[in-house]
Design the sequence.
């Protein structure tokens, strides 16, 4: 892809994911998925130089994969439970308050589809900032009520204020735009649309009523240097385009 060609939808998604770690300081970024991973590396190379990145196993790495240090699993867990991590997970379902499901679709006793399982989602959402990346924004994912709650949403966190004092859902990035919970009742709000996407399209693809401001901005434009880093340094093979599509 030519460095001079306009940003693609996938590249706007990278920018939106990278922004989740702006101002984060020295915390561990745990991106799940191709585009969140590119976004975390882009943030590290530009506006978040103190961000910690991991190879997903036992090492801390630079944005180019150079090993910077050792991260044993016990230390990783200490970062998780101590709030020094910001994960960007996926979601098979997510509702208006940010309750996330990655376990099963349908009745828990007799699910129509078995998924990943609960995994670490409850600990993640109750101990450190959490965001979500959804590459296909649809009513199948953005649902009125999650069939099973894995990641804890704002309504459930409010029921246990003592246990959820570190609960913070930062943003939800999809292939259509950026959503957050900056509303009085912490229900989901449309914070931005990617260029070329209309507010109505986001509404049609969402299975519940979104809070929509009078004016919805577009996801910010990547700088020339950010595009160069994405296209030539971080993802020269163009894996980002396969995750989102044209």
Sequence:
């Amino acid at each position: 892809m030519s460095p001079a060609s306009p940003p693609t939808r996938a590249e706007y998604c990278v920018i939106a994911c990278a922004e989740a770690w702006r101002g984060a300081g020295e915390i561990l970024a745990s991106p799940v998925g191709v585009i969140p991973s590119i976004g975390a590396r882009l943030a590290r190379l530009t506006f978040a130089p103190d961000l910690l990145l991991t190879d997903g196993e036992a090492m801390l790495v630079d944005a180019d994969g150079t090993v910077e240090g050792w991260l044993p699993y016990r230390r990783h867990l200490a970062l998780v439970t101590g709030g020094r991590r910001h994960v960007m997970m996926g979601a098979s379902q997510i509702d208006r308050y940010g309750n996330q499901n990655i376990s099963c679709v349908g009745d828990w006793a007799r699910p129509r589809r078995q998924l990943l399982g609960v995994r670490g989602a409850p600990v993640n959402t109750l101990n450190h900032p959490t965001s979500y990346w959804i590459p296909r924004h649809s009513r199948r994912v953005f649902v009125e009520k999650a069939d099973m709650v894995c990641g804890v949403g704002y309504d459930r966190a409010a029921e246990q204020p003592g246990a959820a004092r570190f609960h913070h859902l930062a943003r939800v990035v999809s292939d259509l735009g950026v959503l957050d919970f900056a509303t009085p009742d912490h229900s989901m709000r449309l914070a931005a649309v990617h260029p070329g996407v209309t507010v109505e399209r986001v509404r049609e693809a969402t299975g519940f009523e979104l809070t929509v401001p009078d004016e919805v901005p577009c996801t910010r434009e990547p700088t020339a240097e950010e595009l160069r880093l994405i296209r030539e340094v971080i993802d020269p093979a163009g894996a980002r385009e396969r995750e989102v599509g044209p």
User: Anything to note?
Assistant: Residues 8 and 246 are 8 Å apart (CA to CA). The domain at 9-244 is CATH 3.40.1080.10 (Glutaconate Coenzyme A-transferase). The helical segments are 9-18, 34-45, 73-81, 121-127, 154-159, 199-204, 224-234, 239-244.
